[in-house]
Design goal:
The protein has 130 residues and is mostly helical. The chain is built from six helices and three strands; from the N terminus they run ααβαββααα. It has a single domain, classed as Orthogonal Bundle (Arc Repressor Mutant, subunit A). The longest helix has 22 residues, at 92-113.
Length: 130
């Protein structure tokens, strides 16, 4: 099997990084990789999307230089290219991770507010008398 292309650190492009992170699935992948203590098996992300869809997302992130991909037997592993990104754009990765966390928290709050239980509890409230 041919090794996948990883752009050299000195050719990382800020626009490509931002474009790669314009998708909510890729932001979630970024967060999980940032929280991981080691490389993460690609199969550990199947709760986010189908295998073919994940393969597309991994490729977009790899081509932008955000992640490295390595094969070990029949498994593939992802890792953030922290050192390369920090070398080219100091502080960027921490800012991207913090922003992704804020987006995830906001999304979670909106989903909770829109859940059927939350709708029922709002419907039970008495209207305010003017």
């Amino acid at each position: 099997m041919r090794a996948p292309f990883h752009p050299p650190a000195d050719l990382l492009d800020l626009a490509a990084i931002f474009a790669a992170l314009s998708d909510p699935t890729r932001l979630t992948i970024l967060l999980r990789l940032a929280e991981a203590e080691a490389d993460v098996r690609c199969g550990d992300f199947t709760d986010l999307a189908t295998k073919s869809n994940l393969s597309y997302h991994f490729a977009k992130m790899r081509e932008a230089g955000l992640v490295s991909l390595r094969s070990e037997g029949t498994s593939r592993f992802l890792a953030l290219r922290r050192d390369d990104i920090e070398g080219q754009f100091p502080g960027l990765l921490d800012q991207l991770i913090a922003s992704a966390k804020r987006i995830e928290d906001r999304t979670r709050k909106l989903q909770t507010a829109a859940s059927p239980d939350a709708t029922r509890s709002r419907a039970k409230r008495k209207p305010v008398q003017a």
